[in-house]
Amino acid sequence: MAKNPDTASRIADNKKAAFNYFFEEKYEAGMVLQGWEVKALREGKVQLTDGYVVVKQGELFLIGCQINPLKTASTHVNPDAVRTKKLLLHKDEIRRLVGKVEQKGYTLVPLNLHWKAGKVKCEIALAKGKAEHDKRDTIKEREGKREVERAMKGRNR
């Protein structure tokens, strides 16, 4: 199970994931990256919202995560912004996830990318899709919190 990385080490967040899914379990996976991708991540040139995780032949892959190359990328490297990236987890964790993903309604969603001990990690979650009424409840809850904060802010002046 993954612990929440502090905000200073965060590279990118998938904010749409919490709106579209209920999270059952969270895992922290390593990523297989090329050099130009690591440099682009240091500059924050990543977009994670369209990303999803698939299982192929007992391995996990991150698809749809866009890492835009820097303009100063080497000329001998042919950067592909939407390249499929392999995720690294222990075999027993992968087996457990495969069993759960095969159940109806479960999927694997990337939550964020962050640094840990100089390495890029991807926090993924076993998630179940929200129904439309659940999304409306989330919006109502968020709006209610905003109204309370506004009222408290106006009262404290």
From TrEMBL:
Q: What InterPro entries does its record include?
A: SmpB, SsrA-bd_prot, SsrA-bd_prot_CS
GO MF terms held by the record: RNA binding
The question of whether Cytoplasm is a record keyword is answered with yes
What the entry lists under Pfam families is as follows: SmpB
Q: Which SUPFAM superfamilies match?
A: Small protein B (SmpB)
- Name the keywords, alphabetized: Cytoplasm, RNA-binding
Record field: transmembrane: none
Localization per Swiss-Prot or TrEMBL: Cytoplasm
The job of this chain, per UniProt, is described as: Required for rescue of stalled ribosomes mediated by trans-translation. Binds to transfer-messenger RNA (tmRNA), required for stable association of tmRNA with ribosomes. tmRNA and SmpB together mimic tRNA shape, replacing the anticodon stem-loop with SmpB. tmRNA is encoded by the ssrA gene; the 2 termini fold to resemble tRNA(Ala) and it encodes a 'tag peptide', a short internal open reading frame. During trans-translation Ala-aminoacylated tmRNA acts like a tRNA, entering the A-site of stalled ribosomes, displacing the stalled mRNA.
* NCBIfam families, per database record: PRK05422.1, smpB
Family from the record: Belongs to the SmpB family.
The molecule here is called SsrA-binding protein
Which source organism?
Answer: Ramlibacter tataouinensis (strain ATCC BAA-407 / DSM 14655 / LMG 21543 / TTB310)
Q: What is the gene name?
A: smpB
